[in-house]
Specification:
α1 packs across α7, α4 runs parallel beside α5 and α8 crosses α9. The protein starts with 21 loop residues before the first strand and ends with a helix. It has 318 residues and is an alpha/beta fold. It is built from ten helices and 15 strands. A four-stranded parallel β-sheet has the order 2-1-7-8, sandwiched between helices. Strands 9-10-15-14 form a four-stranded antiparallel β-sheet. 37% of the residues lie in helices and 18% in strands. β7, α5 and β8 form a beta-alpha-beta unit. The radius of gyration is 21 Å and the shape is globular.
């Protein structure tokens, strides 16, 4: 296992062992953050508070996640339901802006990071923590999003980013988990993909996805059905908008969270909403990601068409 006992800060805001006494770890219950929870206790000698944020991740069993965090030594693990705030303050402005990352796929991971950082700082101060820890790697945009947002909200806060610094591979993480009695999905391995999801979409990267000549495998997709398995009969949806905000589905008024969830279920069942995209990352890499965005595909398309219908020629060109 490489560098598991050391941590080399990349910036003055990063904490090394001995710099902090209590760390707020953004905990998902997956392999990375579960290994981090144990690793921070061992190598930093710090207590760990491990909140889990609900941004509408499909199928999240939060009681199991909380129990796992406490079993691994977390001082506390609070489940924070931020779905309404995320939909209202982050997803809705993106709908109104017809926001697409790189002109290709609807923003969802990027939308969630500022809110995650905001809540992390609030909970860190509430629990007397002097650092925020996250599971971002050194090759993605998320490290920039979370680091910069946390420091904007709390310039005095330190950052702990073990996955970025320890350079453990997936096999090494699994070995570490086995050595320290950390449960691993399936008992033997944690799957070949790195997954991120919330109410607005789901991304998969890594493993065979990195082979540009490899078509997406069937085991990648969870939200969107293969079109070969989709119903033969079409299904019509009518999305009602008020001031750019979707407010109804087929004539029934719904809150934004429920509306997005219902549209996602229907569109996904019909095989609508997959994107195969080469992402230009701020750190200088090009990375292939596969996205499932059934609700966004329907709602953004409807919103763009509505703008075209009601806007003047000059507004639409602008």
């Amino acid at each position: 296992m490489s560098d598991q006992g050391t941590s080399t800060p990349l910036g003055s805001y990063e904490a090394g062992p001995g710099d902090v006494s209590r760390v707020l770890l953004l905990y998902s219950g997956g392999l990375d953050t579960s290994v981090m929870l144990k690793w921070i206790q061992d190598h930093y000698g710090a207590g760990v508070v491990a909140p889990t944020l609900n941004l509408g991740q499909p199928g999240g069993n939060y009681h199991v996640v909380r129990a796992k965090a406490l079993d691994l030594g977390a001082l506390a693990c609070e489940i924070v339901d931020a779905r309404d705030e995320f939909a209202r303050d982050y997803v809705l402005p993106a709908i109104k802006a017809n926001a697409l990352y790189g002109g290709g796929y609807p923003l969802f991971t990027a939308l969630g990071r500022p809110l995650i950082a905001k809540i992390a700082v609030e909970k860190a101060r509430e629990h007397g923590c002097d650092a925020v820890a996250h599971g971002c790697t050194g090759k993605g945009n998320d490290q920039v999003r979370i680091d910069s947002a946390v420091l904007a909200y709390a310039p005095e806060m330190k950052i702990v980013a073990p996955v970025r610094n320890w350079r453990m591979g997936r096999e090494e993480e699994i070995a570490y988990a086995r050595e320290h009695g950390i449960p691993v999905k399936g008992g033997t391995e944690a799957g070949p993909y790195s997954i991120d999801d919330n109410i607005w979409g789901r991304s998969s990267e890594g493993g065979p996805i990195e082979d540009l000549g490899e078509p997406p495998r069937d085991d990648v997709f969870e939200l969107v059905a293969d079109v070969r398995d989709a119903p033969d009969e079409p299904e019509d949806l009518t999305v009602g908008f008020e001031a750019g905000c979707p407010v109804s589905l087929n004539g029934e008024r719904l809150g934004l969270v429920e509306l997005v969830e219902r549209v996602a279920a229907i569109a996904g069942r019909h095989g609508v909403g997959t994107v195969d995209h080469i992402e230009d990352r701020i750190v200088g890499l090009k990375v292939r990601d596969l996205y499932e965005v059934p609700a966004a595909e329907v709602i953004l398309t409807a919103h763009r068409e509505l703008e075209t219908l009601v806007g003047t020629i000059h507004q639409n060109r602008f």
